[in-house]
TrEMBL record, chain A:
Topology in the lipid bilayer: Multi-pass membrane protein
InterPro entries for the chain: BP-dependent_transpt_permease, MetI-like, MetI-like_sf
Protein location: Cell membrane
Family classification: Belongs to the binding-protein-dependent transport system permease family.
Keyword line: Cell membrane, Membrane, Transmembrane, Transmembrane helix, Transport
Organism: Rhizobium oryzicola
Keyword GTP-binding: no
Residue ranges of the TM segments: 20-44, 92-111, 118-139, 145-166, 178-199, 249-273
Predominant localisation class: membrane
Domain of life: Bacteria
Domain ABC transmembrane type-1 stretches: 83-273
Record-given protein name: ABC transporter permease
UniProtKB/TrEMBL annotation, chain B:
Main location: membrane
Domain ABC transmembrane type-1: 90-300
Entry protein name: ABC transporter permease
Organism, scientific name: Rhizobium oryzicola
Gene3D superfamilies hit by this protein: MetI-like
Keywords, alphabetical: Cell membrane, Membrane, Transmembrane, Transmembrane helix, Transport
Alphabetical list of InterPro entries matching this protein: BPD_transp_1_N, MetI-like, MetI-like_sf
TM regions (residue ranges): 98-117, 129-156, 176-196, 235-258, 278-299
PANTHER family associated with the record: DIPEPTIDE TRANSPORT SYSTEM PERMEASE PROTEIN DPPB-RELATED
Length: 288, 316
């Protein structure tokens, strides 16, 4: 796979590789800010998240950047904590989804034809169910709504998409000559998977996982909006929005701020995915 | 013919998925039938009545035959027929979904084509950016914002709810659906625009458009004559998936606007552990999803004769 110095002049190759897409930078900055905010809340928050520190439903001010909620708690503090929850659920769900999806997808690609067809059909059917619906059922099945069940539910619900993508990518790699060569050279299937297959499909997968992260953050907020997410002490953006909807007549700002936080995180994640695609897609790099 | 067989197999497979998911729900459904503190014989009788004492495979067979007979039983909570309740709810959900679907197409198709044809102009780029933003915004937040703006501040339309007597006062019912339809349209057209745009771009870079242009056709003429049919094929399959997921995804929108539709029936069923209701909604909406996929396939074949020879979708 590596390019020989003869057919690629070194300086150009380096300058092409070093060119980082704008979307990667902007996306990285936005996600980085959320990450900082999330980590910060572990150590410090502007106010005690559950303390009633101001008047009820106060407008945004210097003391309370996003105003206060219906119990007089500082909304900005809760939005910061919301960033931590969104990131926790997002990364947890992506880990769960990737674990299940990549394993099943790879197995399907290696399976016999009939078994592979069954896998493919099953992935298609699972994808037809909206993520949120599957997540709702899983949350209900686990009886207690908690951060953990939300992670598990969203991860499982999203795994079908990753599985389908992995299956297609692995099949494409498996049809390559170098896989035959590796087989002839005596490599075992497990070592082929880890040495040849996964490293080759990784760039495309990573892009997709970044998109899944954004979707997971949205699914988490939808779940908490429906009351099926993390229970009250956790200030999830979805729950903040659900509470603010009741007081939208008197305090519309509470219904705007948490949504903005969520939307910027998802946009940041999508930009990051776009940038990664442009940066890491091996086929594009090769064509230059 | 072969396609119908695939539909049938998918129905059975999807039922199996549903069956497993529903069995995951905690507690024996029989518990809902007996009062608290019932003795063992009462529970046993209730289990026999709902069939949860049978082996799993037999339960599954019974589940399948009930679906085939459209027999979803009666609600544990209200005792009303599940099928009838679904019918009452569809009166809200179907008009909501279908009108949102149609208005999204009306918005997305011309805008998407425009974005592709004029991609180097400021509004072409603008459309792309806005549709990018659109897919990052959760539907329920758009709903809340629209309520804040149009129902709270401008007081043009009701902020939620639906007339209890259904469609007997059509004006009221339509008013109640304006904001929900607008919400779904915004979300759905944002993602549709992207598909229409990329389908159009693909068509525009094709050889037959270049040939038509070389023969003297204008870009618009060439696109209308050759492009629409070719570009429509991928868009149709996306459309049908979107229709299905809106139908199922109406849960959140119905909650935002307090609409008594299929989605709120599902949510209430989950909260009350009302198995027959949950099961009925899931089965009916899954069947609608599969039928939408089937319809997509049929329409694609009508549009593109090249597809008629082979079986696509499902297990490809």
């Amino acid at each position: 796979m590596s390019l020989t110095p003869a057919d690629t002049p070194q300086p150009t190759a380096i300058s092409v590789r070093r060119k980082i897409p704008l979307s990667l930078i902007v996306g990285g900055l936005i996600v980085g800010l959320h990450l900082l905010a999330g980590i910060l809340t572990i150590l410090w928050t502007p106010y005690e998240p559950t303390a009633m520190v101001g008047g009820r439903l106060a407008e945004p001010s210097i003391a309370h950047w996003a105003g206060t909620d219906r119990l007089g708690r500082d909304l900005f503090t809760q939005i910061l904590i919301g960033a931590r929850i969104a990131l926790e659920v997002g990364s947890g769900a992506v880990l769960v989804g990737a674990g299940i999806g990549i394993t099943l997808g790879t197995l399907a690609a290696f399976a016999t034809r009939t078994l592979d067809d069954v896998f493919a059909a099953a992935f298609d059917i699972l994808i037809a169910f909206p993520t949120l619906l599957v997540a709702m059922l899983i949350v209900t099945a686990s009886q207690t709504a908690s951060l953990f069940t939300a992670v598990l539910a969203i991860g499982i619900a999203g795994s079908a998409i990753i599985a389908r993508l992995t299956r297609i990518l692995v099949k494409r790699v498996l049809s390559m000559d170098y896989i035959v060569a590796a087989r002839v050279a005596g490599s075992s299937w497990p070592s082929i998977v880890f040495v040849h297959v996964l490293p080759n499909i990784w760039p495309t997968l990573i892009v997709n996982l970044a998109l899944q992260f954004g979707l997971a953050a949205m699914a988490e907020s939808s779940l908490s909006y429906l009351g099926l997410g993390a229970p009250p002490p956790n200030a999830s953006w979805g729950r903040l929005l659900q509470e603010a909807q009741g007081t939208v007549y008197t305090a519309p700002f509470g219904a705007i701020a948490p949504g903005l936080a969520l939307v910027t995180l998802v946009i940041g994640m999508n930009l990051l995915a776009d940038g990664l695609r442009a940066f890491a897609d091996p086929t594009r790099r090769r064509s230059r | 013919m072969r396609r119908s067989a695939i539909l049938l197999v998918s129905v059975v497979l999807a039922s199996a998925v549903l069956f497993v998911l529903l069995r995951l729900l905690p507690g024996d459904p029989a518990n809902a039938l007996v009062s608290v503190g019932a003795d063992a014989t009462q529970i046993e009788a209730a289990r026999r009545q709902v069939g949860s004492d049978l082996p799993l495979f037999q339960q599954f067979l019974r589940f399948l035959t009930d679906i085939a007979k459209l027999d979803f039983g009666v609600s544990f909570v209200s005792g009303a027929s599940v099928l009838r309740e679904i019918g009452d709810r569809l009166v809200v959900t179907l008009p909501l979904t279908l009108s949102a679907f149609i208005s999204s197409i009306i918005v997305a198709v011309p805008v998407g084509i425009l974005a592709a044809v004029r991609q180097r102009t400021w509004y072409g780029a603008g459309i792309s950016v806005i549709s990018q933003l659109g897919i990052a915004v959760p539907a329920f937040w758009i709903g809340i914002l629209l309520v804040t703006l149009f129902a709270v501040n401008l007081q043009l339309v009701p902020s939620g709810g639906f007339p209890t007597d259904g469609w007997s006062a059509p004006i009221d019912s339509i008013e109640a659906l304006i904001l929900p339809v607008a919400t779904i349209t915004l979300v759905m057209s944002a993602s549709l625009i992207r598909y229409v745009r990329s389908a159009t771009e693909e068509v525009m870079s094709s050889d037959y458009i270049r040939t038509a242009r070389a023969l003297g056709a204008t870009l618009t003429g060439a696109l209308v004559r050759h492009g629409i049919r070719n570009g429509a094929v991928p868009v149709i399959s996306i459309l049908c998936i979107e229709l299905a997921s809106t139908l199922l995804g109406a849960v959140v929108i119905e909650r935002v606007f307090a609409l008594p539709g299929l989605g709120s029936m599902l949510l209430l069923g989950i909260e009350q552990r009302d198995y027959p209701n949950v099961q009925g909604v899931l089965v009916v909406s899954t069947m609608l999803v599969l039928i939408a996929g089937f319809a997509a396939d049929v329409i694609q074949r009508l549009v593109d004769p090249r597809l008629r020879g082979r079986v696509s979708g499902g297990a490809s």
